[in-house]
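Colleagues,

Please find the record for the two-part complex below.
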Amino acid sequence: MTPNVLVVEDDAALRELLALILEGEGLDVETAANGKEALERLQSRPPAVILLDMSMPVMDGWQFCRELDRRTGPRPRIVVVTAATDPAKRADEVHADGWLAKPFDRDRLLNMVRRMVDEPR
Amino acid sequence: MGTPVGGAVTDRERVLLELARREKSDVHETFQAITEASALLLGLARVSIWALVDFGLGGAGEVGPDTRIVCKDLYLLDERRHVSFMPIHGRDFPSYLRAIHERRTITAHDAQTDPRTAEFAGFYLLPLGITSMMDVPIWHRGEVYGVLCFEHVGPARQWRPEEEAFAIHMTDIAAACLEAAAHRVASQRWQTIIESLAEAVFVLDSNGTLIQCNRTARRDYLERWGVETWSDLVKVIDLVDAADRRVPATDWPFQRVLRREKVQGEIYGLVFGRTGERQYVRVTCSPVLEDGQVVYVVLVIVDATEEMFVEHLKRELLAGLAHELKTPLAIAKGYAQQLESSKCSPEQAPRMLDAIIRACDRMDHLSETLLDLAGIILGRLQLTRERIDLSELALSVVRRVERGAPDREFRVELRPNIPVVVDSTRVAEAIRHVVDNAVAYSDSGTRIAVDLSTADGRAVISVHDQGIGIPEEAQPNVFQMFSKAHAGTTHDRGGLGVGLYLAREVVRRHGGEMWFESAEGKGSTFHLALPLARAT
């Protein structure tokens, strides 16, 4: 089965871009506009990696991670995608596995996702 | 005139007592009381008080060439009335002034021959028939203020020691009156300064009872919050520190000063309990000590709302900016790198370029917003007006927003040829803020309607959405800077929170107005009205 990546980002253009880049690398990508939508996507198929924006309407990144931790089963790898000045701190706050600062570098994005997909927890 | 005998109170003693007790608030009245009482009690034809006034450069109390002897009051016993007398030149009476300056009482039984008073004989004593004089200097703050003059008409009079004592008592009363007046002037000067301060000044005693406060304090605090006393004021407000933490009553500046702590220029927020209205102030609190004990506390309060607003502006704006700028930047950079990677097919390129253009457009809009904000806050917004068709301008704005929100159903009804004379960039930004909001606060698939009507010489653009609406309690603040009706809720759509504030400021500077209707859960309609251009 193709490894699955879930992109959670409220900005439509950025969401599309992330999907486009990852699909170009042969990854199976699903998208969600906020944490609530992301939780719904998890029901159908748990992803290997989640690219997570932190500031989102309806349900933000922090709330989403809290909800995620309540669930049983393995926790997907999480990469925080943030405009914050201290992305590492954001990542720590939600026990993420990595972070990308906006504007991120395409190669760094691909390397990070690829590594996480290749090295399951 | 009897001499004091045993315990009996003489007339003179009674009068002295009365004079000493009276309110010495008015110098003129007190002087009149002194001259009149002296004349009546001692049977003197003329009793007067004179002041030495130096019009030259000599220091006070010195007898310079320009010293004048000015009559402050003269009581005439025969006529039972107070009159005045013309000023006389000090230089014509050197012996007299020297004697006065030696602090000596002049008791001249034969005034016309006495070396100290003979100078007055020709022009004054002889014509008025004055035979005996007793002149006592009046002292004020270490210097001779003037002189109390007893003048006797008729057979020469031998001044008795108790009469001299009486005269000296009278000058003491005059001196006390001058001192009280000087003190009153000084305190009035302070009072005037304190009253006119832009800072609020409260003086409390150590129990927290309000002793005194100035006009600013009354107007900006007591009257504003509808209270009369300090203790009432304390009941209706809560104190928070600069970080918005509630300050317990025991740590209020007043209490801390009682504990002899220093309170110098600290920032506090005053929160009015009933309405939640908030004001920031800078507080300085100082003790007034007496024998090492705090007897009064002086509180000086300066409004710092604007100062805090600027702080807030910096914080909110800097944090928001990073986020607002980095998202379109990430989009532009990402698509550009994707195009460069040759991972995309030629047919994908136009869409990617379009995404890059839209991202650049967002950054452009953001920079315009910042420039407008700076212009308005610093009062330097310059409008470059030109005659344009408002419908065309509105359409181009709507189309730009529509491109970035293809999932909304835009319904645009713009009557063509609506001439306005406006700064098209500024007005386009204003419309953009409103249309952007319609998108941000509505869901995918809903309709956004934009129409343009004219009435009463105005063009009105109305933007209607089917979004989440604005809660009633948030409606009064919609146009305030950084007011986001849904901040911190799941409906928070990010943004700087300055869009509607800027839009209204720009519209108002064009002589227009903005308003809205909104129902929570149903949607909002925002209207921008601008004056139509006069026909050419």
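Confidence is low (pLDDT under 50) at residues 1-6 of chain B.

Comments are welcome before we finalize the supplementary table.
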